[in-house]
Amino acid sequence: MPPGTVLRGKWNGKRYRLERLLGLGANGQVYLATCGSRTCALKIGKETEDLQAEANVLASLDQRERSRPPFLLDVDDAEWQGKKLPFYAMQYVPGSPVKAYLRLHGSQWFGVIGYRLLERLSELHEAGWVFGDVKSDNVLVSGYGRVALVDYGGATAIGRGVRQFTEIYDRGYWAAGSRTADPAYDVFAVAVLWIHALDGKRLLQLTRTLLPQNRHPRELVELIRTNPTLRPMETWLDRALYGRFQHAREASEHWRALVHAAAQPKDASDGHVPGWMAGLLAASVVLCGSAAAIWFLH
C-alpha cells in the first residue's frame, strides 16, 4: 500500500497512517505507521487465523513480562479497497539485521549479540513458545548490541510442528533432528545464524553443492573449524548443532563462559587474542560507562 494510506480499525476505532514498508513476510507485510503522535509497526496479514496466532504469542509474553512496556498494542480489522485486512500493531523496534550490524560495527560485537539473543530466546521458551524462524532478518540489533526478535510468524507452542522456518536454518534440512518445536530447534538455528553471518559465502556454496542425502551437521562443523572467527566458539557451536543443550538458558551460560575464557591469553608468553575477542574486551570497557549496557550483568 502506498505511503500515506490511512487504515481505521473496525472494532477499536484507532486510525493508522502508513509511513513506509518495513518488510515482507510469508504471511503478511509490516509497515512503519503512526497513530496520533505514536509511532508503531503495523503487520497486515493474509489470513486472520495466522495473524491471531502471532498476536497470541505477543500477548502471552506481555502478560509474563509485565515489568516492560507492552509489545502488542492493538489487534483489529480494517477495510481497504473493498478488502478485509486483519492487522495488529506492535512496538516499533529500530535496529539492523545481525549481518548488517556486524558489517557496520565489526565482529567484536559477536559475543555480546550472541549472549543477548540466547537470553531473549530463553524468555520465549520459558513462556512455552519456540521462535521457529531464527535468521538474520528476524534478529534486529541496535546500540550497544541490544537485541530484539521480530516477525513472530514462526512462533510455535512447544511440542507442535514448527509453523514457519527458513530452509538453511532448519535442523530438518541438515538431518539434525525433527521439525517439532523444542528449545534445541532455536539453538540449532542460532548456530547456523553465526555461520551465515560470519562465513556466509562458504555456507551458501555448501548448500548449492551438497546432495540432500549428504547434508549433516558435520559439514557445518567443518566450516567452523576452518574459520578463524568462528573457531574460538567451536565447542559451543558443535553442541548446538548436535542438539546437546537441554535449553537456551544452558546455552547462554555456556556461551558467556566460553567468551570470557577465550578472551584470556593462554599463557604469559601468548599475548594473542582473536580479533573479535579483543574487540569484545574493548567494547566491554565502553559498556562499563553505562550500567544498563553491561551485557555480562544482563
TrEMBL record:
- Matching PROSITE patterns, A to Z? PROTEIN_KINASE_ATP, PROTEIN_KINASE_DOM
Q: Please report the organism this UniProt entry assigns to the protein.
A: Cohnella nanjingensis
Q: Which segments cross the bilayer?
A: 276-297
Question: Which InterPro entries would you find in this protein's record?
Answer: Kinase-like_dom_sf (IPR011009), PAK3-like (IPR051931), Prot_kinase_dom (IPR000719), Protein_kinase_ATP_BS (IPR017441)
Give the protein's recorded name: Serine/threonine protein kinase
GO molecular function annotation = ATP binding; protein serine/threonine kinase activity
Assigned keywords, A-Z:
ATP-binding, Kinase, Membrane, Nucleotide-binding, Serine/threonine-protein kinase, Transferase, Transmembrane, Transmembrane helix
Family stated for the protein in its record: Belongs to the protein kinase superfamily. STE Ser/Thr protein kinase family. STE20 subfamily.
**One Pfam family for this entry, by name?**
Pkinase
UniProt-annotated binding residues for ATP = 43
Protein kinase domain location: 16-298
